[in-house]
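Structure Section — protein described below
Tokens — whole-number codes for backbone shape
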Amino acid sequence: MTEKLRAMHFQTMVHRGKEIEDSCDINDTNAVKHYQEQRAKWFAAFIKQHRGKLDSQLHELIDSLESQYTLLHDQ
């Protein structure tokens, strides 16, 4: 789970850069709050997808013949 959380953190920077940039808008007083709400939704979806399923996900990754880069964010 720690590795998945680390991946989630860094993939957020890559795949959600626009949202992060928008949260830095000094002219929008709600920008940070809006980003935090979005981030909470992404994290809730992440937890729902991974809680209690790590063993099966690990076996799927190990048993796969190809290396996998699992996206933790929607495209």
Observations:
- Residues 2-63 form one domain.
- The chain has four helices and no strands.
- The chain has a mean pLDDT of 86.
- The radius of gyration is 15 Å.
